[in-house]
Amino acid sequence: MTATPTPAPPLAQQPATAHAPSAATTVADVVVVGAGPAGVSLATALAEAGLRVAGLAPHAPDAPWPNTYGIWEDELAPLGLAHFVTHRWTDCVVYLHGRALRLDRVYTLVDNRRLQAHLLERGAARSVVWRQGPAQAVTHDATGSTVTVGDGATLRGRVVVDATGHRPVFLTARQVTGHPIAYQAAYGIVGRFSAPPVRAGQLVLMDFRPDYLTPAERRDQPPTFLYAMDLGDGRYFVEETSLAAAPAVPLTRLEERLHRRLAHAGVRVVEVEHVEHCLFPMNLPLPRRDGPLLGYGGAASMVHPASGYQVAAALGRARRVADAVAAAVQRPDTSPAAIAAAGWEALWSAARLRRHRLYLFGLQAILRFDEEQTHDFFTTFFRLPTTQWAGYLSNTLTTAALVRTMLRIFATASPRVRSALLANGLGEVGLLWAALRGE
Ligand SMILES: Cc1cc2nc3c(=O)[nH]c(=O)nc-3n(C[C@H](O)[C@H](O)[C@H](O)COP(=O)(O)OP(=O)(O)OC[C@H]3O[C@@H](n4cnc5c(N)ncnc54)[C@H](O)[C@@H]3O)c2cc1C
User: Fold this and answer.
1) 56 ligand 1 Cβ < 6 A
2) Which domain holds residue 19?
3) What are phi and psi of 99, to 5 degrees?
4) What distance, in Å, lies between the first and last C-alpha atoms of the chain?
5) How many Å separate Cα 257 from the centre of its chain?
């Protein structure tokens, strides 16, 4: 909805949060909707960029993030956040074709509680004020945007950021891709077991061993893998995971597979501490970026199409986006659309968009692989120099380096993977062409 435009008053003349015009209206430079890792990271970065920030979530901002977040240590360290972890593994492996392949990279589990508290404290020390309630509507005019909360209160800012996750509340207009949405799905248990499901001190990123399945299941259903880790003190996290499938692998099948896999290994669940249900899109089409809303996190399609990871990106890209938004807000008479455009450009630059399309192209290949091709492909992938596969998964390669990595995979993969990749190339000419041309 668009109201009658009025000229934007300079920032200094706008009321500050502490002097909101009425008890029911909060005024800020930026309203961030959503208090997951993305919303909290960006709200903090915006405040540290000198902006007044109002946050909104249906729950208290420090309500625990519900998911178990894995992250590579080399993604946290440059952000000065490497100590916000509960566990750290140097013994990391993948199982492919029945054999363990050692990964020369350190994996960690985010300490959600401490990281969340740290970001919230940093935000509060600057300007972030969180309100509790569900965002229900947003309206825009020439000078800003107004979010209406369930209780009728409003939050007004020069721009609104939708950080409400993979099923965004406001940012629903998406590009048309013609591809079905592929989902990552997983069923996991944190608990105690009759015998160790993985070696002491070990992190198993992917155990694709399928020997507990019938030949028909192996042939007819998308491959799944075990993601598992030793949490110490006799506790383990085990999760049966479908990397990507369209349609999604049902959680009931993953639950059943997890128990069968454990039973096959002679392991019984003794005590369940926590059950994790995981289902989110890997290739949610990018939102339209020509409107008055900015997005961040799952809402902005920031999930890495090759891995499903996103938390490192949400933490790592917040500052750049915040600086761009701050610069746009400081310019007089900037409309919400112009501020959002500055944020979008920082988040989804042409180079990043191009790499994203290359990753989407890679995802389409993975969706086509059968069991043998899956094993072959990941064997080739994890035998790349660590800088290449790590850079691929963390989205830190330049576009040229990403293309070189993809070509190297093609050149060194088994013939059956090469023919699948060729077929994918022929089937996805449009996607590849768009990526290479930078459209
Ligand atoms: C089970 C699971 C495990 C995952 N594991 C990993 C992992 O190991 N590593 C990794 O990098 N990624 C992982 N992901 C993927 C991804 O990083 C997460 O989904 C992440 O939580 C997305 O962050 P987000 O802040 O964008 O959205 P969310 O975490 O979904 O947060 C959305 C926020 O918006 C709020 N909200 C929703 N509706 C409204 C409304 N109407 N008004 C106001 N606020 C609203 C919510 O309450 C919440 O605060 C996992 C995902 C799942 C589901």
Assistant:
1) yes
2) 11-65+111-172+286-348
3) -115, 150
4) 30
5) 25
Residue 73, domain member (yes or no): no
Atom 52 of ligand 1: nearest residue by CA position? 278
CB 203 within 8 A of CB 92: yes
Calculate how far, in angstroms, residue 38's C-alpha sits from the geometric centre of ligand 1. 8
Q: Which helix (H) or strand (E) holds 338?
A: helix 336-347
- Residue 27: inside a domain, yes or no? yes
Residue among 287, 42, 293, 14 nearest 145 (CA):
293
Judge whether 177 lies within some domain.
Answer: no
Number of the ligand 1 atom closest to the C-alpha atom of 165? 27
CB neighbour list of residue 2: distance below 8 Å, 6 or more residues apart: 139, 140, 141
Tell me if 311 CB under 6 Å of ligand 1.
yes
Number of compact structural domains in the chain: 3
Taking only the tens place, the pLDDT of each residue in 334-388 is: 999 999 999 999 999 999 999 999 999 999 999 999 999 999 999 999 999 999 9
Q: Is the peptide bond before 247 cis (omega within 30 degrees of 0)?
A: yes
What's the CA-to-centroid distance between 16 and ligand 1, angstroms?
29
Ligand 1: which atom is nearest the Cα of residue 298?
Answer: 26
pLDDT in tens, 261-318: 999 999 999 999 999 999 999 999 999 999 999 999 999 999 999 999 999 999 999 9
Tell whether 335 and 371 lie within a shared domain: no
CB atoms within 10 A of CB 102: 10
Residues 60-83 as b or e (16 or more Cβ within 10 Å = b): ebeeebebbbbbbebbbeeeebbe
Nearest atom in ligand 1 to 304's CA: 11
CB contact set of 42 (below 8 Å; sequence gap of 6+)? 32, 161, 163, 296, 297, 314, 318, 321, 322
Summarised one tens digit per residue, pLDDT across range 114-162 is 999 999 999 999 999 999 999 999 999 999 999 999 989 999 999 999 9
- Secondary structure, 3-state, 102-167: EECCCEEEECHHHHHHHHHHHHHHHCCEEEECCEEEEEECCCCEEEEECCCCEEEECEEEECCCCC
* Domain co-membership, 338 together with 355: no
Largest CA distance in the chain: 71
Same domain? 195 vs 260: yes
- The alpha-carbon radius of gyration of the chain (Å, integer) is 23
